[in-house]
Amino acid sequence: MSTYAYRQAAGIRQALLDRRELALIDVREEADFATAHPLFAVNLPLSKLELEVRRRIPRFTTPLTVYDNGEGLAEIAVERLRSWGYQDVALLAEGLAGWRRSGGELFQDVNSASKAFGELVESVRHTPSLSAQEVQALIDSRQEVVIVDARRFDEYQTMSIPGSISVPGGELALRVESLTPSPQTPVIVNCAGRTRSIIGTPVADQRRRAKPGPCPAQWHYRLDAGRPDAGAPATAAIRSLLPRLRRPGR
Fold first, then answer.
1. Is residue 250 part of a domain?
2. Residues 6 or more apart in contact with residue 195 via CB below 8 angstroms
3. pLDDT tens digit string along 79-97?
4. Which residue has the higher pLDDT, 115 or 175?
């Protein structure tokens, strides 16, 4: 019978505060992970563990702590990780329930840390945004506008705004200038939620500012599907947007 080492939630939290190397691994499927997980846990479902773990955790000496929510997946994952050469593998004591009982905070959704960073950027940079209805109004009115999709190409292929261009986030700084007909062309950055567009909008703005021709920040927008005024009629959106999008003398 296999024996397992255990780590307490308090020890994991302290290791994170001390910036020690570790990996806290949730081996449930992504849908379950998204319902509740510690902030810095990484989701490596047992069904994909063999395919992803070496790429995500390349060092065999990294301390690994594995957990589930009582499904029995964590023990299987520990056995497999040991067989693949990982040298320091333990279970989180009492799993997700133990983390909760110890007072540890749980977060919903995926990529929680990066999304929190995006919200911080928006609060500091006051990133301008347009609702989905406002963007549709611009498309319908045939205004000169460039819509760039900052998601991965596979996400873009799944669904996208008609007429948008796939420019994964890391490529924005390299490609945004070549995609715009002139420095005066408004650029709208969209993604599936909001984080990548929040980050992508100032990236596009700063890149275009570095070249000849004024390009103030308000000429770069992110698409925000969660705006309270998302139901505004398209005709009203056109009337309110055009003064903001046109430069004097155009």
1. no
2. 111, 114, 115, 117, 118, 119
3. 999 999 999 999 999 999 9
4. 175
Q: Distances in Å between the alpha carbon of 69 and those of 36, 39, 61?
A: 10, 16, 26
Q: Which of 91, 110, 129 is the last residue of a domain?
A: 110
Q: How many domains does the chain have?
A: 2
Q: Tell me: the pLDDT tens digits for 184-207?
A: 788 888 888 788 888 888 888 776
Would residue 83 count as lying in a domain? yes
Structure tokens at 85: 């050469």
Residues 143 and 214 in one domain: yes
Which domain does 166 fall in, by range? 116-223
d(CA 38, CA 138): 41
Instruction: Report the predicted TM-score, pTM, of the whole model to 2 decimal places.
Output: 0.64
Q: Is residue 200 in a domain?
A: yes
Quickly tell me which residue has 């510690």 as its tokens.
Answer: 38
Has residue 245 been placed in a domain? no
* Same domain, yes or no: 219 and 149: yes
3-state secondary structure the chain: CCCCCEECHHHHHHHHHCCCCCEEEECCCHHHHCCCECCCCEECCHHHHHHHHHHHCCCCCCCEEEECCCCCHHHHHHHHHHHCCCCCEEEECCHHHHHHHCCCCCECCCCHHHHHHHHHHHHHHCCCEECHHHHHHHHHCCCCCEEEECCCHHHHHHCCCCCCEECCHHHHHHHHHHHCCCCCCCEEEECCCCHHHHHHHHHHHHHHHCCCCCCCHHHEEEECCCCCCCCCCHHHHHHHHHHHHCCCCC
CATH number at residue 210: 3.40.250.10
Same domain, 25 and 75: yes
